[in-house]
Amino acid sequence: MEERSLVVVKPDGVVRGLAGKIISRFEEVGLKIVAVKLLKVSKSLAERHYPGDREAWLRGMGEKTLENYKKFRVDAIKLLGTNDTHEIGKMIQKWLVDYIVSGPVLAFVVEGPHAVELVRKICGNTLPLLSSPGTIRGDYAFDSSYLANTGKRAIKNLVHSSGSIEEADYEIPLWFGKDELQEYQRVEEKAMR
Ligand code: GDP
Ligand code: MG
Predict the structure, then answer these.
(1) Domain limits of the chain?
(2) Where in this chain does the record put each Nucleoside diphosphate kinase-like domain (predicted)?
């Protein structure tokens, strides 16, 4: 049941001075911060974090975007010059890399029971327009895929968090060495479990 998840306060969150508030959300719920660092992400880390060489990931991004365009009656060919999911996925991957390297980010690892699912709940829906009040994205952002895609940029949604246990297992070693992860007890552990 004990899990770890990677959280990254993206550049918009850092320059808006929200890093402290965001980290508090996870601490308050009882999750343990086991590693933290403020860093400027290199292009090579960004490209491993958003894996442009993974066909399923690229096509998934492309499909999601096409669905969204359909909803808003945006012509993909007119806007992006293609309606191929692979090509669109590649374009979005570039937007995501440009976004995450655009300024310093605060990366941290949280640990606790159901950490991956809990962290996703606290962050809220990927699209701030749809994320509930009370979540980080719902409380502090309003961006939408329509605004982002027509502006040819990533959705500004303040935080990254691992989407599954497998994703966390892939991402944490990308961002942190084993010696950077700390072990300690939180005083709440006895009261909360
Ligand atoms: P997350 O796990 O909730 O962050 O969402 P995803 O893994 O699906 O997407 C990664 C990041 O890409 C998101 O956090 C957004 O910043 C961005 N993103 C996701 N979907 C879209 C989209 O349709 N258009 C654009 N422009 N950016 C997107
Ligand atoms: Mg994700």
Answers:
(1) 2-177
(2) 2-183
Is 160 known to be catalytic? yes
pLDDT (tens digit, 9 = 90+) per residue, 14-70?
Answer: 999 999 999 999 999 999 999 999 999 999 999 999 988 889 989 999 998 999 889
**SS3 per-residue string spanning the chain:** CEEEEEEEECHHHHHCCCHHHHHHHHHHCCCEEEEEEEECCCHHHHHHHCCCCCHHHHHHHHHHHHHHHHHCCCCHHHHHCCCCHHHHHHHHHHHHHHHHCCCCEEEEEEEEECHHHHHHHHHCCCCCCCCCCCCHHHHHCCCCHHHHHHCCCCCCCCEEECCCHHHHHHHHHHHCCHHHCCCCCCCHHHHHC
Question: 137 CB under 6 A from ligand 1?
Answer: no
Per-residue pLDDT of 84-126, as tens digits, reads 999 999 999 999 999 999 999 999 999 999 999 999 999 999 9
- As a CATH number, domain 2-177 is 3.30.70.141
For residue 10, give the ligand nearest its CA: 1
pTM, two decimals, is 0.95
Mutate which of 126, 143, 165 to test ligand 1's pocket (most atoms within 8 Å of Cβ)? 126
Q: Quick one: which atom of ligand 1 is closest to the CA of 65?
A: 23
The atom of ligand 1 lying closest to the CA of 96 is 12
